[in-house]
Amino acid sequence: MPEIEPVVYEIYKDRQKYDDLPVTYNSFSGADISATIVLPNESKPLELGELQTISYSVHRENSPVRTLGRVNPRGFVKGPRTIAGSLIFTVFNSYAFYRLDQYKQLIYGASSRYTLATNPMFPLADMLPPFDIVITAANEYGKFARMKILGVTIVDEGGAMSIDDLVTEQTYTYMARAIQPLTAYLPQDLYNTYVDDTYVNFIGFGG
Questions:
Q1: Confidence of residue 119 (pLDDT cuts 50, 70, 90)
Q2: pLDDT reading at 67 higher than 90
Q3: 202, 203, 196, 204: which is closest to 8 by C-alpha?
């Protein structure tokens, strides 16, 4: 049975003490963040180890409501929302999405990874079905946060190779169906334990 500091146990034993704790804030650098995509027909999620930058923007149309005799609008009507962004990958020796099982099958068939199939296909990212991007952050203070971009579909892609560039990059732009903003959390499997035969749930500790 793991040991926990008595003061921590007392805080969770008395919920009121936990509610009165001061709020603390933590930040994450790019080195603390990893991104994973979840696709249908894949055996497991794919960690985007080549990803160096991910951006997103949310735009919602708003139209003013006007009436006669009024210079200023009476109010505003909210219209449709658009979620879009970009993915920038560092290029190594292979296309970033060729690590997917379904793409490997089209390129290499049942043979080894570096032996092409008899009639190989070389699919592009815009042929992928809609997928989710899960962004996970964890810093050296033991703080965790995650963000989700749901229903991502690739719209454009491009790249450049130059004698002046030490690193080659490939850029994708996407649109998405929904987004879950960055939210603090603690993994349940790491912070659930028993203390003195009393179940203590550590989810949400530290804000």
A1: confident
A2: yes
A3: 202
pLDDT per position as a tens digit, 17-32: 545 556 677 889 999 9
Q: How far apart are CA 116 and CA 107, in angstroms?
A: 6
Q: Which residues pair with residue 58 across a beta bridge? A: 83
Confidence of residue 107 (pLDDT cuts 50, 70, 90): confident
Q: Report CA torsion sign: 183, 189, 195, 198.
A: positive
CA 164 → CA 50, 52, 89, 167, distances in Å? 21, 19, 18, 9
DSSP conformation letters of 37-100: EE-TT-SS-EE-TTEEEEEEEEEEEEEEE--TT-SS-SEEEEEEEEEEEEEEEE--SS-GGGGS
Q: How far apart are CA 131 and CA 45, in angstroms?
A: 10
CATH of domain 6-63+75-201: 2.30.110
pLDDT for residue 149 is more than 70: yes
**Whole-prediction pTM:** 0.75
CA 78, chain centre distance (Å): 27
Rounded Cα distance, 59 and 80, in Å:
8
Domain ranges (residues) in the chain: 6-63+75-201
CA-based torsion, 158, 160, 161, 167: positive or negative: negative
